[in-house]
User: Which sequence fits this backbone?
């Protein structure tokens, strides 16, 4: 049951990261929150299987921080990649 709290917190962090990063109009609105939530689910489950309990603060800190790092990485890479690809396509089409 406590995993839901970690997943909700990571989804909220993902939404905040989506709006904080540039090029948000070039990626889907759910991509960053979904990837950060998926990373949080995998990490929380892995830490639970590793023996950390729900009452352990490190499980929560690691889950939230790691999901934020994954969200930042995915958002930054997707934004830059899409912007570069769009610029190359415009140049190839002679629109620049």
Assistant:
């Amino acid at each position: 049951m406590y995993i839901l709290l970690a997943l909700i917190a990571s989804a909220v962090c993902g939404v905040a990261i989506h709006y904080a990063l540039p090029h948000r109009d070039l990626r889907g609105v759910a991509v960053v929150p979904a990837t950060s939530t998926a990373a949080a689910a995998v990490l929380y489950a892995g830490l639970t299987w590793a023996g950390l309990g729900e009452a352990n603060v490190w499980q929560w800190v690691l889950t939230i921080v790691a999901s934020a790092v994954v969200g930042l990485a995915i958002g930054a890479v997707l934004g830059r990649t899409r912007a570069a690809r769009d610029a190359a396509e415009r140049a190839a089409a002679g629109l620049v």
